[in-house]
Amino acid sequence: MEVMDLLRERKSVRTFLDKKIDDDVKDLLYEAAFEAPTAGCQMFYSIIEVKDERKKEVLAKACDSQMWLTKAPLVLVFVADNRRWNDLYRAYGLKPREPRLGDLWLALSDANIAAENMVIAAESLGLGSCYIGDVIERHEIVKDLLELPDEVVPACMLVIGYPDAKAKDRSKPRRFAKGYIVHQDAYHIQSAADHKKYYEGHFIKTDKEIDYKDTLKKFMEFKYESDFSKEMSRSARLYFAPFLKDE
Ligand SMILES: Cc1cc2nc3c(=O)[nH]c(=O)nc-3n(C[C@H](O)[C@H](O)[C@H](O)COP(=O)(O)O)c2cc1C
Hints:
By secondary structure, the protein is an alpha+beta fold. It is built from eleven helices and four strands. Flavin mononucleotide binds near residues 11, 130 and 173.
């Protein structure tokens, strides 16, 4: 498939066929992740393949009780890894400094970029995937379950499998128009009128009247003001704390 067609057609998959992913296909997915750009070619990430059914259950529950993800044949947690290089330095008797916020930022970028390469490769191999951002929540549970040292922080979780008919039929959510997203030379704060133009233009028009304010209010309450969103920030603060110590 042409890359642009593939990108246009890719959509998140949350329901899977009961079909295993062969090891050679899995290896291609890992290869795709490893070929992604990476800061200084250091691959500041690790990937934890969660096979243990009990662990999958605990993770799904920790991720705002998204129990559907336990049905995915492949569950991967991409972690920003500021530990491996420092252990390597120490293996040669070197004394590296403690990792700091900038290191974590780079490592989170590395992990997410590698994950996205895998998403695209999965699509090209007839597989579907879905990111699970909620893996940032429940610091205590996830850290303990995956035995994460302080220098290793979850970036994202990916669930991958062969899409079932329901997943294939689901229509892909529309994106905002280019004018709302792309700025020229500097960040341009948009007017209330522009926000409304882009938000309302984003809906497919039918005969049914849309109450945009009410729709947006419900969205805000469901996402931005939700308990899971607050839990995410509480948990993120705990992951970040070891990187914020004084130099
Ligand atoms: C960082 C990130 C976190 C996400 N977390 C979740 C999640 O926890 N659960 C879920 O079902 N989908 C999750 N998604 C998938 C998005 O909901 C999805 O990408 C978005 O609605 C656009 O739909 P599409 O991927 O089908 O184009 C996440 C996506 C990203 C990029």
